Amino acid sequence: MNQQQGTIFSKIAMPIVIVAIVVYLICSAWVGIRDPYQFTVAYTDTMETSVDAAGWVVRSEQPVAGAEGVVQLKRGQGEKVAKGKEIAVVYQDETYVENQEELLQVKNDLSALQYATYSESPSGTALEDQMLSAMTSLRTAASSGNYSSLSEQTETYRKLVLRREYLLSSEATAAMTQAAADLQARYDDLQSYQSGATSIKAQESGLFSSYVDGYETLLTPDKLDGLSPKDLAAFSQLTPSTDANVLGKLVTDSIWYYAVTVPGDCVTRFAVGDSVDVFFNSLSETFPMEVFQVGEVQEDQVVIVLRSSQDDDKAEDLRQESGRVIFYSSEGIRVPKEALRVSKDGERGVYVVVSQKARFRPVKILAEDENSYLVKADPTDEEDTRILRAGDEIVLASEELYDGKVVR
Question: Which residues form the RND related barrel-sandwich hybrid domain (predicted)?
Answer without folding.
Answer: 65-237
